[in-house]
Design brief:
This protein has about 700 residues and is an alpha/beta fold. It has three domains: about 5-290, Nitrilase/N-carbamoyl-D-aminoacid amidohydrolase (4-Layer Sandwich), CATH 3.60.110; about 300-420 and about 465-565, Rossmann fold (3-Layer(aba) Sandwich), CATH 3.40.50; about 565-670, no CATH class. Pfam families: CN_hydrolase (PF00795), NAD_synthase (PF02540).
Amino acid sequence: MRLLKVATCNLNQWAMDFDCNMKNIKESISKAKEAGAVIRLGPELEVTGYGCEDHFLELDTLTHAWECLKDILLGDWTDGILCSIGMPVIKGSERYNCQVLCMNRKILMIRPKMWLANDGNYRELRWFTPWKGKYQLEEFQLPSEISEALSQKSAPFGYGYIQFLDTAVAAEVCEELFTPMPPHAELALNGVEVFMNASGSHHQLRKLNLRLHSFIGATHIRGGVYMYSNHQGCDGARLYYDGCACVVINSDVVAQGSQFSLKDVEVVMAQVDLDAVASLRGSVSSFQEQASSKTKIQYHSPEEEIAFGPGCWLWDYLRRSGASGFLLPLSGGADSSSVAAIVGCMCQLVVKEIVNGDEQVKADAIRIGQYTDGQYPTDSKEFAKRIFYTVYMGSENSSEATRSRAKLLADEIGAWHLDVSIDGVVSALLTLFEKLTGKRPRYQVDGGSNIENLGLQNIQARIRMVLAFMLASLLPWVHSKPGFYLVLGSSNVDEGLRGYLTKYDCSSADINPIGSISKQDLRAFLRWAAVHLGYPSLAEVEAAPPTAELEPIRSNYSQLDEVDMGMTYEELSVYGRLRKIFRCGPVSMFKNLCYRWGARLTPSEVAEKVKHFFKYYSINRHKMTVLTPSYHAESYSPEDNRFDLRQFLYNARWPYQFRKIDELVKNLDGDKIAFEESDDVGKVAATSDVGGGMGVVAAGSGDPKAGI
């Protein structure tokens, strides 16, 4: 048997913090060597951190990367172990995203990335050049300081693999796995048995299974050992890298790391039999040889992902920002209650890791919670009381139900809770306005116009934002604490898509852990958290109809979100997926929804819904330009900063597109149901003569839980 022990890892790197990153890299190598591993794989761009963005354009960043690599190679870190280390490299005048393969204090090879990630949240082509010399290796002259220190003038640079006496090893960098002709397919034919994939892959709800299926598929027919390494944590921006370092042999996952964790370093070990790879390649029937060594693949439910992903992201942000805690405007509604529950989950995770012996988490918790005399957190509620403030900012339009729900949830979590009325501040502003203009606005239920009604709602919303930041900056002073509190936002992805929020209201905060999560997923999370996080009041929160409570409550009127928006949250999820994931404009969306909803709505009704959505989406798009930085979790996020790049000044009448929809409605006899009810979707699509390209539907587009 040709036995080989390999190590891959999850590292919590921080963009541009070279000391932090080097500490984690060295610790991972040490753990790998202690366990007897002869190969150690680290994540993509681990030396600098993946999220350096335009810092990659600075020569200092690349110089520091070489300095760090020199520090590793001058020590005994690589003695007897092949280390794949991710860092940027300049060759000539071009920057490359590279894996540097080192062993015994020498650089064996530099492997530049050939296919760069450049969609969604990724912009690698802005900073790097893809390597085009696919079938060649060039000699790369090492920087003079490195060359002199290592007594090595050059190293092979390009697409290739390392041939050892008993096996061959090659790198495949992140995005390359997902290309139509991935490198591992060709390398396997050249006898490569071990593939090392260094990645920088972020969390997105329901995405992990797609990633793992790709690793499994890579070795299902060709055989091989597939190692995967990833970042884990918040490295300075909106993304949470979700780890899951693993080792796959002949399509069986034999070792898997955590997806969500507060650990800075997690090393995943596996001992593999290379003869099993050769056996599979020689005879598919021998595939069963590896079955006995496989491990059960670990997946989290979407509700667990919402708890643990944003919870870990918040902890990284808190411990690295220098803040003393969080402040949350807690309304007693579903969104702010979800954020409160996530902070509560974070506190539970911190205490759990301290119990498990994580000294780094313990040190950070002692510093942030200001423990003295050898004390440290042992109870999540006690820890929350030190670092989490909630405030209910009620008005004459608030109900006793939301006030009591906010207080009860804060008590369950352990937060320091405040209850304040903003009526005095609202009244003062209205008096000032009346003095300036001679007029005093009224709510619509009291005879006022729509303009007056919106103005009065916006005043309340913006006062809450101002008060939240005031409390966050001054409460530490009140309680004789240093630092400041981070204000947490609580608008969800559907409200952002529709623009159902006031610009510069409580959606404006320092960070938002749920800004890319749908209302439907949040409600499922609340039901789960009521039981699994031990906050039973969340069940009552979830059952209550969503309301902004910005208008007066009357016997015949109560403000409701879905009535205000003119659409349901479920419909918003469908619109969002069609717009972003399936890239539908107004006309394409109308065609898809005529098919999807044709059994219960007429084309005219579908047309009105589509027009209504695009009208308010385009009117409110400007709000996305100032949206609070949010944890990225959903594939149809409208976040304007880097993920969903579109204009913010539209002709909201969409004259050409809406005219085309009207023509289609006319051709479809728009006041009649387009399709009869049928369980046989294929039959309906095949027999219905709907014209205009109708009858083709994007798979899963009508299911809010579909998509990746």
